[in-house]
Amino acid sequence: MKVVFCSSEVFPFAKTGGLADVSGALPFALADKNCKVKVFMPLYKGISPQKVNDDFGITKINSNIEIIFIKNDSYFMRGSLYGTSAGDYPDNLERFSFYSQKVIEITKKMNFRPDIVHCNDWQASGVIIYLKTKYKDDSFFANSKTVLTVHNLAYQGLFDKDKFPVLGISWDYFSVPYLEYYGKINLLKGGIVFSDMVNTVSPTYARQVQDKEYGCGLDGVLKEKGSRLTGILNAIDYKVWNPSKDRFIYKRYSSAALDGKYVNKSRFQKEHGLTVKKGNFLIGMVSRLAEQKGIDILSKVLNSVLGKYQVVILGTGDEKYHKILKRKARKYRDSFSLHLKFDEGLAHRIYAGCDAFLMPSRFEPCGLSQMISYKYATVPIVNHTGGLVDTVMDYNDNGGGFVFNDYSGKALSKTIDRAYGVFCDKKRWSALLKKISKYNFSWAKTAQEYINMYKKCLSLP
Length: 461
Ligand code: ADP
Hints:
Elements: E1 2-6, H1 18-23, H2 26-32, E2 36-42, E3 51-52, E4 56-62, E5 65-70, H3 73-76, E6 83-84, E7 87-88, H4 92-109, E8 116-120, H5 121-132, E9 145-150, E10 158-160, E11 180-181, E12 184-186, H6 187-194, E13 197-200, H7 203-208, H8 219-224, E14 229-231, H9 259-271, E15 282-289, H10 295-308, E16 310-317, H11 319-331, E17 336-339, H12 344-353, E18 356-359, H13 369-375, E19 379-383, H14 386-391, E20 402-404, H15 409-423, H16 426-436, H17 443-459
Parallel strand pairs: 1-2, 1-8, 2-5, 8-9, 9-13, 13-14, 15-16, 15-18, 16-17, 18-19, 19-20
Antiparallel strand pairs: 3-4, 4-5, 6-7, 10-12, 11-12
Helix pairs in contact: 2-17, 4-5, 5-6, 9-12, 10-11, 10-15
The chain binds adenosine-5'-diphosphate.
Adenosine-5'-diphosphate (ADP) is lined by residues 17-19, 21, 152, 286-288, 314-316, 342-344, 347, 366-369.
């Protein structure tokens, strides 16, 4: 099967969140299952492809997969991927519609006739929109089907109506059945409407987005997809996330010998000015600092949590949360370690060094950190929503984490206390760590689910 895979971020070339993890793993797992895959992403600053011409760069991974980097220096050679702390880049429509058209043109130029064009999120939705509008009569794609994966419905690619001509398609498509959304252009909506199949990144989120509460205004459009909408749980790339091979952490360890974990904890505490004591409960969080991630409820109870336990947070995001967290960090110097930045190595050391990992998300399409935590024998504490429902069962139900059901600071802090209760019982805690570090969320199985979806898609009228 031939697959064009389109994503605005692909690990290790560029990453702001889970989309990059998925795009850096799924296409490779598909290639391992004998799909021929071309991955398309923008050529951002700092990426050095094996070859570059005027239009694109290319890095060949093996005979089944290559990465193609769309080149446009004025659009993509910038400090960040989508915007600065002041907001999104104002020309994001220009940037990602350019990217989308180039994907199509380069695919043709390379004479690579895809069975499946698999696009991710609003940034790549343009590829599907163009295939079903501008290129709808192009015989080159006559046998191609389109798949859209929605990693997070809260980011839709909304733009003012007066920018519509940038897309270069008929105004007929600026209408409610297509791209119009309350007077604005909505790229994700266009991708959903035009795609042959849509999937979200967990079965629970796929159900939730069809309801008003989680649908972000697109619940109706998603519901209309009927059996063309599905949920496939993300997985983890154990080549990247594996404490027995991890080059970032202080000491390597495995589920068979978890002792090394305590070295990681004490070295981390020491390096970051936290009191070094085995009995101190160290809780970590690595996250975009957005409301979605539950920072609002965490902030409310942080004083009391920091009075009892140690906390490390690594993240960037809303300035509002930066300020709140900075204030707390000044007050709780020996129990709170705060890092307002993006740092891959530090993230690994947090997963390895902490006892527990916080994901108090208000909503969570899938979430990868809980699965990463398991591998590092770090116990997730999560809100019962989206992909967290599909991956974390409560300790009391024989599961591997601690789950709360009521989105509030009080429920969160009670659940942390409950986890601490088990932590104090050495025998029960080490049995729990042993169990979770053996859980398996690998891409091989998930890639097969994608291939099955592609096959279903190819059989559709
Ligand atoms: P989302 O995609 O919504 O941000 P996920 O849980 O799906 O959330 O994926 C988050 C990924 O990004 C994980 O690999 C996490 O470790 C990583 N990450 C998030 N923030 C940072 C940061 N500040 N530094 C390093 N890695 C980060």
